[in-house]
Amino acid sequence: MIAPASSPDHVPAGPLEAAAPAGAGAWVVLPTYNEAENLGDIAAAILAALPAATLLVVDDGSPDGTGEIADGLAAADPRVRVLHRAAKAGLGRAYLAGFRVALDGGADRVIQMDADWSHDPAATPSLLAPLLAGTADLVIGSRYTPGGRVVDWGIFRRVVSRGGSLFARVVLGLPANDLTGGFKAWRAATLAGVDFAGVHAGGYVFQVEMTYRAQRGGARIREVPITFRDRRVGQSKMSRRIIVEALVVVLQLRWDELRGRGPRRAP
Q: What are the C-alpha distances in Å from 238 to residues 66, 86, 241?
């Protein structure tokens, strides 16, 4: 069920976009599961950074009342919508469900980000800038491009994240330095061109696979530097199972491609 809200403004592509209100035509997809302590403040910060955007909260039946908080935000602000899902089914599935709603709602651009403050809402305009300038189809908020950084992480998380990105980059031949992060901005047509039905959409490997499919489809990919911080409250959802799954799926994607079963490459 989606809480009603007004339709986002649409701005024709071209030079006039630079003069449009920040976030015009953009939807921010924000998956949540037990984020009651974060949601109110992060939603306010997102809409302060992008006052003309639509914020779509995708809640996977959080038992801590996150969904009810989201409904209250939607009732108070027409820029907020809520997609309720019956139960937790993985971050990738939540994103795909939100992407479908945003595309069906007429989004021109789609931002994806976490609700735990690891992604700074103030950085969202810099992610949108290359899309508005027409120089990119997918923009990655990157921890590992010059100017990007990670704070508050221990050595294990740093090694896993850096190593996972490097592994995927080498195996799949991808140009980006940060392939495991989930702070991204998409041109709607590029996102719509990804075959959602074919995406494994498990845990964090979802981020790798979406970039892989976009790149194989001919998307122009850019990275902009961000500062990534550990979540403010709650616990990380990273686990050894998620790490192993990521390695296996990356290898499977490459194996499928070698057998001619991967996504069709753009000319």
A: 20, 22, 8
Q: What is the DSSP letter of 56?
A: E
pLDDT digits (tens, 9 = 90+) for 159-180: 888 888 999 999 999 999 999 9
Tokens at residue 207, please? 């981020």
Q: What is the pTM of this model?
A: 0.87
Residue 103 and residue 91: Cα distance in Å, rounded?
18
Cα distances from 92 to residues 97, 113, 154, 198, 262, in angstroms, run 9, 12, 25, 12, 19
pLDDT reading at 102 higher than 70:
yes
Window from 53-57, 66-70, 198-202 with minimum mean pLDDT: 198-202
Instruction: Kindly list the structural domains of the chain, giving each domain's residue range(s) and its CATH number in brackets, ordered by start.
Output: 22-258 (3.90.550.10)
